[in-house]
Design goal:
Structural class: mainly alpha
Shape: globular
Helix content: 55-70%
Low-confidence stretches: none
CATH architecture of the largest domain: Up-down Bundle
Oligomer: single chain
Mean pLDDT: 96
CATH topology of the largest domain: AhpD-like
Largest sheet: none
Number of domains: 2
CATH superfamily of the largest domain: AhpD-like
CATH class of the largest domain: Mainly Alpha
Length: 182
Amino acid sequence: MSRLPTPAIDEAPLASREMLRAAAERFGRVPNMVRLLSVSPAALRGYLGLLTALDDGMLGAQTPARIALAVAEENGCPYCLSLHTDRARRRTGLDDAEITANRSGASNDPQAEVAVRFAAKLVRTRGVIGDDDIRALRTAGYDDGQIVEMVLHAGLNTLTGYLNKVADIDVDFPVIKTRKAE
């Protein structure tokens, strides 16, 4: 059972309810994590705002999905890994081999490999990267805007991973266990 309760939509603060309805349209339902965020309308608005803004970014759908898988595994967050594995399969068409590679901080796609490796290192080193890391991204064809988006995707997934671990949130997706020891 979660340490922090996840309210039903009709139990959420009034200021969160419209955002929860929008989240239901976006996700096909309201995941437990989003319901938990609803206890703070400001937190829910911030999360959905950044998520929605990044949807319109330059990385497409698959690269952020790959990054989310790498970050979930790096952070050892079972909720995140379960959610992102489900979404990667259903929404972006990533196959099991690619999902497995992404969880290892890699990719079977040469260009995506550089982005996923960067995101995993970014989380592992808490943002300490070198000139060689940026050079590798640029050599792979990523521009500065895309690099900024990679950092924000990694950060957003780290932020929600921390919330999920603090709350010990109940996983409402097919459960995928992380490889990291807790």
